[in-house]
Design brief:
170 residues, alpha+beta, Jelly Rolls
Length: 170
Protein backbone atom coordinates (compact mmCIF):
# COMPACT_ATOMS: atom_id res chain seq x y z
CA UNK A 1 0.00 0.00 0.00
CA UNK A 2 1.22 3.54 -0.73
CA UNK A 3 3.01 4.95 2.33
CA UNK A 4 0.69 7.46 3.94
CA UNK A 5 -2.53 5.82 2.61
CA UNK A 6 -1.92 2.94 4.96
CA UNK A 7 -4.24 3.57 7.98
CA UNK A 8 -1.67 2.02 10.32
CA UNK A 9 0.82 4.75 9.47
CA UNK A 10 -1.48 7.67 10.38
CA UNK A 11 -1.65 11.07 8.64
CA UNK A 12 0.35 12.09 5.57
CA UNK A 13 3.70 13.75 6.12
CA UNK A 14 3.76 17.56 6.39
CA UNK A 15 4.65 19.42 3.20
CA UNK A 16 8.18 20.72 2.91
CA UNK A 17 9.83 22.78 0.21
CA UNK A 18 10.90 19.52 -1.43
CA UNK A 19 7.48 17.77 -1.33
CA UNK A 20 5.63 20.96 -2.28
CA UNK A 21 7.18 21.12 -5.73
CA UNK A 22 4.84 20.37 -8.62
CA UNK A 23 5.62 18.27 -11.67
CA UNK A 24 7.44 21.22 -13.27
CA UNK A 25 9.61 21.87 -10.24
CA UNK A 26 7.54 24.94 -9.27
CA UNK A 27 6.52 25.51 -5.67
CA UNK A 28 2.86 24.84 -4.99
CA UNK A 29 0.96 27.36 -2.98
CA UNK A 30 1.12 25.79 0.48
CA UNK A 31 -1.68 28.00 1.79
CA UNK A 32 -4.14 27.11 -0.98
CA UNK A 33 -5.87 24.57 1.26
CA UNK A 34 -6.67 27.32 3.76
CA UNK A 35 -7.84 29.79 1.08
CA UNK A 36 -10.15 27.47 -0.89
CA UNK A 37 -12.87 27.00 1.76
CA UNK A 38 -13.04 30.77 2.28
CA UNK A 39 -13.28 31.36 -1.49
CA UNK A 40 -16.01 28.74 -1.85
CA UNK A 41 -17.97 30.34 0.99
CA UNK A 42 -17.68 33.76 -0.63
CA UNK A 43 -18.74 32.37 -4.00
CA UNK A 44 -21.73 30.62 -2.42
CA UNK A 45 -22.76 33.85 -0.68
CA UNK A 46 -22.47 35.85 -3.91
CA UNK A 47 -24.54 33.28 -5.83
CA UNK A 48 -27.14 33.23 -3.08
CA UNK A 49 -27.42 37.03 -3.23
CA UNK A 50 -27.73 37.03 -7.02
CA UNK A 51 -30.33 34.25 -7.18
CA UNK A 52 -33.40 36.51 -6.75
CA UNK A 53 -32.10 38.77 -9.54
CA UNK A 54 -31.63 35.80 -11.90
CA UNK A 55 -35.05 34.36 -11.07
CA UNK A 56 -36.75 37.73 -11.60
CA UNK A 57 -35.08 38.28 -14.97
CA UNK A 58 -36.33 35.05 -16.54
CA UNK A 59 -39.21 35.01 -19.00
CA UNK A 60 -42.63 34.91 -17.37
CA UNK A 61 -43.45 31.33 -16.39
CA UNK A 62 -47.16 32.06 -17.08
CA UNK A 63 -46.77 32.13 -20.88
CA UNK A 64 -48.39 29.34 -22.89
CA UNK A 65 -46.11 26.86 -24.63
CA UNK A 66 -47.22 26.21 -28.22
CA UNK A 67 -45.97 23.20 -30.19
CA UNK A 68 -46.78 22.85 -33.92
CA UNK A 69 -47.91 19.34 -34.85
CA UNK A 70 -49.08 19.52 -38.47
CA UNK A 71 -49.71 21.97 -41.28
CA UNK A 72 -51.46 20.68 -44.39
CA UNK A 73 -52.91 22.34 -47.50
CA UNK A 74 -56.58 21.43 -47.96
CA UNK A 75 -57.11 20.61 -51.67
CA UNK A 76 -60.92 20.63 -51.33
CA UNK A 77 -60.73 24.16 -49.88
CA UNK A 78 -58.46 26.15 -52.24
CA UNK A 79 -56.34 28.73 -50.40
CA UNK A 80 -56.98 27.10 -47.01
CA UNK A 81 -54.80 24.98 -44.74
CA UNK A 82 -55.36 22.85 -41.67
CA UNK A 83 -53.00 23.42 -38.73
CA UNK A 84 -52.73 21.38 -35.53
CA UNK A 85 -50.94 22.63 -32.42
CA UNK A 86 -50.74 21.69 -28.77
CA UNK A 87 -50.91 24.38 -26.12
CA UNK A 88 -49.73 23.97 -22.54
CA UNK A 89 -50.84 26.57 -20.02
CA UNK A 90 -48.58 26.52 -16.96
CA UNK A 91 -50.33 26.89 -13.58
CA UNK A 92 -52.04 30.29 -13.62
CA UNK A 93 -51.15 30.77 -17.31
CA UNK A 94 -53.30 32.70 -19.77
CA UNK A 95 -53.46 34.18 -23.27
CA UNK A 96 -53.88 37.84 -24.17
CA UNK A 97 -57.11 38.86 -25.91
CA UNK A 98 -56.76 37.71 -29.53
CA UNK A 99 -58.42 36.30 -32.61
CA UNK A 100 -57.52 33.60 -35.10
CA UNK A 101 -59.34 34.59 -38.31
CA UNK A 102 -59.91 30.83 -38.57
CA UNK A 103 -62.23 28.08 -37.52
CA UNK A 104 -60.59 26.80 -34.34
CA UNK A 105 -61.48 23.50 -32.67
CA UNK A 106 -60.09 23.00 -29.16
CA UNK A 107 -59.90 19.61 -27.39
CA UNK A 108 -58.69 19.40 -23.77
CA UNK A 109 -56.16 16.65 -22.98
CA UNK A 110 -55.08 17.44 -19.39
CA UNK A 111 -56.11 19.79 -16.61
CA UNK A 112 -58.90 22.33 -17.06
CA UNK A 113 -59.10 25.54 -19.04
CA UNK A 114 -61.46 28.52 -19.10
CA UNK A 115 -62.51 29.87 -22.52
CA UNK A 116 -64.76 32.71 -23.69
CA UNK A 117 -65.37 34.53 -26.94
CA UNK A 118 -66.74 38.07 -27.05
CA UNK A 119 -70.53 37.95 -26.56
CA UNK A 120 -70.40 34.33 -25.34
CA UNK A 121 -70.44 32.73 -21.92
CA UNK A 122 -67.28 31.80 -20.02
CA UNK A 123 -66.94 27.99 -19.95
CA UNK A 124 -64.62 25.70 -18.00
CA UNK A 125 -63.47 22.67 -19.96
CA UNK A 126 -61.96 19.45 -18.62
CA UNK A 127 -60.26 16.50 -20.41
CA UNK A 128 -62.40 15.16 -23.24
CA UNK A 129 -64.39 18.39 -23.71
CA UNK A 130 -64.22 20.64 -26.78
CA UNK A 131 -64.66 24.30 -27.70
CA UNK A 132 -65.19 26.12 -31.02
CA UNK A 133 -64.13 29.61 -32.15
CA UNK A 134 -65.35 31.05 -35.44
CA UNK A 135 -63.25 33.19 -37.81
CA UNK A 136 -64.95 36.42 -36.62
CA UNK A 137 -64.74 35.62 -32.89
CA UNK A 138 -62.55 37.57 -30.51
CA UNK A 139 -61.11 35.27 -27.85
CA UNK A 140 -61.45 37.34 -24.65
CA UNK A 141 -60.68 34.63 -22.05
CA UNK A 142 -58.21 31.78 -22.44
CA UNK A 143 -56.55 30.59 -19.24
CA UNK A 144 -55.66 27.68 -17.02
CA UNK A 145 -58.36 27.14 -14.40
CA UNK A 146 -55.71 25.93 -11.94
CA UNK A 147 -53.02 27.86 -10.09
CA UNK A 148 -51.20 24.61 -9.23
CA UNK A 149 -51.45 22.24 -12.23
CA UNK A 150 -50.67 22.72 -15.95
CA UNK A 151 -53.35 22.27 -18.62
CA UNK A 152 -52.81 20.87 -22.11
CA UNK A 153 -55.04 20.98 -25.17
CA UNK A 154 -54.97 20.41 -28.92
CA UNK A 155 -56.16 23.07 -31.36
CA UNK A 156 -57.10 22.30 -34.96
CA UNK A 157 -57.45 25.39 -37.15
CA UNK A 158 -58.80 25.78 -40.68
CA UNK A 159 -57.37 29.08 -41.90
CA UNK A 160 -56.26 31.05 -44.92
CA UNK A 161 -52.95 29.64 -46.18
CA UNK A 162 -50.02 31.63 -44.77
CA UNK A 163 -52.15 33.66 -42.31
CA UNK A 164 -50.83 33.89 -38.74
CA UNK A 165 -52.29 31.45 -36.21
CA UNK A 166 -52.95 34.15 -33.62
CA UNK A 167 -53.45 37.91 -33.96
CA UNK A 168 -53.47 40.01 -30.74
CA UNK A 169 -56.57 42.17 -30.42
CA UNK A 170 -56.17 45.84 -29.51
Amino acid sequence: MIGWLNPEQGRPPAATDETAKGSFGLKRNLISRKVRPLTIRKLALILLCLMPVAVGSQQSPKEAQVTPLLSQDLPDLPGKEGVMITVVYPPGGSDPVHRHFADAFVYVLEGSIVMQVKGGKEVTLTPGQAFYEGPDDVHVVGRNASQTHPAKFVVFLVKKKGAPILVPEK
